Predict the 3D structure of the following.
Amino acid sequence: MQSFSDQELVSGVLQGSSTHQTALYRQFSVPMFRVLLRYAKDRAEAEDMLQDGFVRVYRDMGQFRGEGALGGWIRRIMVNTALSHLRKQRDFVRDVPDFNVFESKFHTEEDFASNLDAQTLMSYLQRLPPGYRTVFNFYAIEGFSHEEIAEQLGISIGTSKSQLFKAREFLKKILNKSFIS
Amino acid sequence: MTEQPAQSPIDDLFRKTLENLPDSPAESGWDTPSERVWQHVQSNISQPKKGWGTQSLVLMAALVVTIAAGLYWMFSRPTETPAAEPVVTPIEQPVVAPSTSSENQPVASPKPSTSTGSAKDTQSKPTPRNSTEEQKAKPGDNTAQPLPGSKSTLPPNSTEAQKKKGEKN
């Protein structure tokens, strides 16, 4: 695959070059898909987000000013696209008090015996309820504060803190089980 | 970021594992999107630009031609002339000269047109049905009917006529 610099990719895409469009997708589809897998409940939802995100990238390419890395700009678009998808889900930020229902999704022997590689951790994240998963992503991985999360998701700071606490508790239980087994 | 988020060990575990992945996709393919995604993206970004495409121009031209043809047909067809109305010739009214001697005499009615009249005459003077002349020509009806606007003549044997006669005398 021919490699292009950020500037070459941007100018090529703006001129409608299919070669540059393809190169941009090939270069960024995998890292962006990894980001979106953390926000989605499964692979299919992450692919839908990725598709919408790349359509936005090509559509809004003219707005890229070249001040930062192209990858960072695309990533912001992808995260915003994921948020748009999640906001469509009614009451996606809500409490899930019954942990047993959540726990029953696991095939204990196979899941917890794994060696906690990226794919396994991703699968744990995806099994969190959407609100817990989103807040945990924003806070623990993206590095947002509770104020920023509250503003982004349209929730209170207290709700953001509560969702993060419960997400951590869920993940701890899963990990403890995995270590024990 | 307004403040540095307080990280817990579990946060670190997820962040370090998920953010420090190798550039190349995993062999198992779990982090590689299916080719369907790129096909959908391509179909979305290669859509024709909004505006007047060739197809819409052809459709517009066809619409204009249809409207023009319709208007031409509507205005060029012969207009329907109203049916010719029968010509009503004015009827000459017999002028009744006021004379005292002939007051008691019945008013002379015009000669009724008979069927024995020549065809030429009937053609030259077409008389509409139920016309005043026809009514005058009715047998047994020897009194002239007053025409609208004409001087009314009283029937000779009417009470009013007799009164007038007495007044004159």
Notes: The helical segments of chain B are 9-19, 35-45, 54-76, 119-124, 132-136, 159-168.
